[in-house]
């Protein structure tokens, strides 16, 4: 397909006149077992009724028909140019600037990688897909090229990696830090997993840390440990009259090992043969193409139009939390160069709907069953696609992903795409606070059994042990379920239950009565004070 033929296609296709091109680097593979686990897969929708005839064979663009790189405006990409066929590892080595470390921590990391050649091969093969873009961004900022190796340490270049501390993505951003650097996190997407956005944010953060501490080793350690902790460690040494360089500061072993691990990877890149390791060939030109998106489109359909498996598409575009790409929030997707050409051709042929999902704002608090009826979904499907746990209500103002009706033509708005959230509340009756006077022999277990709650709860409410025994007459607090009744319009009438021969006589109290009294279910004549829980 020539550029002249592209120019005659639809406006949507013209918007896909693309960006950074890709190359014939090693094929994608599923994440290895020794890398962080992937998040639960999202449910995928049925294929659209009017499926296109998909071009699966790569469509190569001739060298004379150069595409402009949207990530580097004004530049044309020529895969046949001498620079494009150069070795990216050589370019990377030439940009190394950091002072080398040489200690036992470095030796330990070198030994660890050397003993795992299969792991190193998988890690570097994954990294080869993103290295050109990262090296390019590092060079634009005049930063040391070693920073491009940091995702090897953070995530082994697994774009959907999640740590036990909930750090996410290739650059392992914590939620709050991600928000500080404008990485959106909502029900539709998590930009901490976005290849372009997270790289921009990580380099912004590292630049800020270097400006704060004036040393790249300290900046790297602060990236792992947190800038506040690093500042405190420096202040402690200053107070004690000690040096404040990286080697002199007291820090956790994880952080102490962090920079040496980066040094070990640097040493491997410099001389892989020394460690009996090999690096994949990486050409000095972009691996992926940035394709503009103008309308909402299902993830599965986008992958189909590109001739990619869903898994491969998601490895390039791991930021999507739902099976739909919202154009208002995600203006571009990343595709291998050849598949981007196929995507453009197949998109022009497609006649069915692009998106079968849309967003719906819940007007009032309701159960998932009620929400499913309102949207024409099965309750199980609504729960699965929106990740709603059992026994939970969906609160008013929440956003749910629901099927897009045939008559709906508008895409999800930018405001909703950026701010959508899901708020849940327990689907349980309200609780009231009951205060009773313990009788002779009452224990935590006895009170718990009487009110059908757990002993641990009674103990917690009363700040005693689970095996504690209450003193006769001691005030005991229990929270129990009840059905609230409507109060009279202007006066409050309390009820008083008076124990009399094992029976309760109920009479109206004076309007000024300050509380409700009800008979304890123990039938021992104990006074019980009931009030709504705060």
Automatic annotation (TrEMBL):
Keyword Lipoprotein attached: no
Residue ranges, annotated region (Disordered): 27-49, 507-534
Positions of the LysM domain: 434-478
Signal peptide: 1-22
Keyword vocabulary terms for this entry: Signal
Pfam family, one: SLT
SUPFAM superfamilies reported in the protein's UniProt record: LysM domain, Lysozyme-like
Gene3D superfamilies in the record: 1.10.530.10, LysM domain
Coiled-coil zones: none
Protein's UniProt keywords contain Chaperone: no
CDD domains: LysM, MltD-like
Family of the protein in this entry: Belongs to the transglycosylase Slt family.
Protein name: Membrane-bound lytic murein transglycosylase D
Lineage summary: Bacteria, Pseudomonadati, Pseudomonadota, Betaproteobacteria, Burkholderiales
């Amino acid at each position: 397909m020539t550029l002249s033929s592209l120019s005659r296609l639809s406006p949507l296709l013209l918007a896909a006149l693309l960006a950074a091109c890709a190359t014939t680097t090693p094929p994608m593979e599923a994440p290895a077992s020794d890398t962080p686990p992937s998040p639960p897969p999202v449910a995928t929708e049925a294929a659209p009724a009017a499926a296109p005839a998909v071009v699966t064979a790569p469509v190569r663009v001739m060298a004379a028909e150069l595409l402009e790189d949207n990530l580097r405006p004004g530049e044309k990409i020529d895969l046949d140019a001498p620079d494009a066929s150069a070795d990216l590892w050589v370019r990377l080595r030439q940009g190394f600037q950091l002072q080398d470390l040489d200690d036992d921590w470095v030796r330990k990391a070198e030994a660890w990688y050397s003993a795992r050649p299969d792991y190193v091969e998988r890690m570097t093969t994954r990294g080869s897909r993103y290295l050109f873009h990262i090296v390019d961004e590092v060079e634009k900022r005049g930063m040391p090229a070693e920073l491009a190796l940091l995702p090897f340490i953070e995530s082994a270049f697994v774009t959907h990696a999640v740590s036990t501390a909930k750090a996410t993505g290739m650059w392992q951003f914590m939620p709050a830090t991600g928000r500080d650097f404008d990485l959106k996190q909502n029900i539709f997407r998590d930009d901490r997993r976005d290849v372009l956005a997270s790289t921009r944010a990580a380099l912004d953060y590292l630049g800020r840390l270097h400006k704060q501490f004036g040393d790249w080793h300290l900046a790297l350690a602060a990236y792992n440990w947190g800038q506040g902790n690093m500042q405190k460690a420096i202040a402690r040494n200053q107070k004690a009259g000690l040096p404040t360089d990286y080697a002199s500061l007291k820090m956790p072993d994880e952080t102490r090992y962090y920079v040496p691990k980066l040094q070990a990877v640097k040493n491997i890149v410099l001389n892989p043969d020394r460690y009996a390791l090999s690096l994949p060939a990486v050409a000095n030109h972009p691996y992926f193409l940035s394709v503009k998106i103008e309308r909402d489109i299902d993830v599965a359909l986008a992958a189909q139009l590109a001739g990619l498996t869903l898994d491969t598409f998601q490895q390039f575009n791991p930021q999507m939390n739902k099976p739909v790409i919202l154009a208002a929030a995600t203006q571009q997707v990343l595709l291998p160069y050849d598949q981007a050409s196929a995507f453009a051709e197949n998109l022009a042929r497609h006649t069915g709907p692009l998106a079968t999902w849309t967003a719906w704002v819940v007007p009032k608090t309701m159960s998932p069953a009620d929400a499913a009826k309102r949207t024409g979904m099965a309750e199980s499907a609504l729960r699965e696609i929106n990740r709603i746990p059992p026994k939970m209500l969906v609160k008013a103002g929440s956003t749910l992903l629901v099927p897009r009706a045939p008559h709906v033509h508008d895409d999800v708005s930018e405001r909703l795409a950026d701010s959508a959230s899901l708020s849940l509340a327990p689907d349980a009756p309200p609780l009231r606070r009951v205060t009773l006077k313990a009788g002779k022999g009452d224990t935590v277990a006895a009170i718990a059994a009487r009110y059908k709650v757990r002993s641990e709860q009674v103990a917690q409410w009363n700040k005693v042990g689970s095996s504690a025994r209450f003193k006769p007459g001691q005030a005991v607090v229990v929270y129990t379920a009840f059905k609230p009744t409507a109060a009279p319009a202007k006066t409050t009438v309390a009820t008083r239950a008076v124990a009399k021969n094992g029976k309760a006589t109920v009479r109206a109290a004076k309007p000024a009565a300050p509380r409700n009294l009800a008979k304890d279910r123990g039938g021992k004549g104990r006074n019980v004070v009931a009030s709504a829980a705060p």
